[in-house]
Automatic annotation (TrEMBL):
UniProt cross-references to Gene3D superfamilies, sorted A to Z: Large-conductance mechanosensitive channel, MscL, domain 1
HAMAP family named in the record: MscL
Gene from which this protein is expressed: mscL
Keywords assigned: Cell inner membrane, Cell membrane, Ion channel, Ion transport, Membrane, Transmembrane, Transmembrane helix, Transport
Membrane topology, record value: Multi-pass membrane protein
Highest taxon of the lineage: Bacteria
Phylogenetic classification of the source organism: Bacteria, Pseudomonadati, Pseudomonadota, Gammaproteobacteria, Pseudomonadales
Protein name: Large-conductance mechanosensitive channel
Primary location class: membrane
Subunit annotation: Homopentamer.
Species, as recorded: Pseudomonas kuykendallii
Amino acid sequence: MSFVQEFKSFAMKGNVVDMAVGIIIGAAFGKIVSSFVGDVVMPPLGLLIGGVDFSDLAVILKPAQGDAPAVVLAYGKFIQTVFDFLIVAFAIFMAVKMMNKLRKHEEVKPAAPPAPTKEEVLLTEIRDILKEQRSPVIDTKPPL
């Protein structure tokens, strides 16, 4: 098999195509979630917490010298990113929880009882034969 044919075979497998579609949809969904958090959730939350923005927190390790920029440890951006992640994660959790609530739960059908084993069938037949062979019920009253 040539390299081109092998690559074509790999690229056209169902799981590779499914993964590509998932990545593309995931990227688009990521934009929706980012917009939801940035444009809908964060403004009221910013009002509640007093407009705190951690992005500006930093430590200057080495000041700027001439054309060389300053070396800055921008730990505030990291804190803000973690804070944003927690908000996004919570928003997604709530959306999934709501979707699961709206989804109708499929009723689980009870499994059919298992068929009797050969031994059970034979024992049932023996029992039925013994019932047929029994004598009729004898009257146990004493004679008068």
